[in-house]
Amino acid sequence: MSTSPRDRDEQGRARNARPRDGLGRPLPYGLPGVERQPEGVPRTPAEALTEAQRLLDDGRPFHAHEVLEDAWKAAPEHERELWRGLAQLAVGLTHSARGNASGARSLLGRGAANIAPYTDGPPHGIDVAGLVAWAGSGVGVPRLTRDR
Hints:
Elements: H1 45-57, H2 61-74, H3 80-97, H4 101-115, H5 128-137
């Protein structure tokens, strides 16, 4: 059993400081990794969607998930499941890129189920119907909004 202290952030919360690759997989200490998305960045919904889409387009779904997770945590109660579902879609893409087809199907299905109730009145221009259809196919990079 290791007795080394856990990595902690400035607030004392446990954080793994190991470097990560572009898909969020931990690398051995000392190796260069991909810079992680900062956590807890306040963004408007439009800013979160724009940043998440940029990261998805750049092939960085793990990082997009972190942006969407921040939005989920900051969202008003009536939108939390929407943002949670969007984050799950990004995690599904991460699993797919890592070669984990079973995990990808599971997270894409969960994400689609969480956003589906917003189909009739999607906030922030989010293309809920298009994302639900995309999650069923899992092909390509999703477009989060209708107007981008």
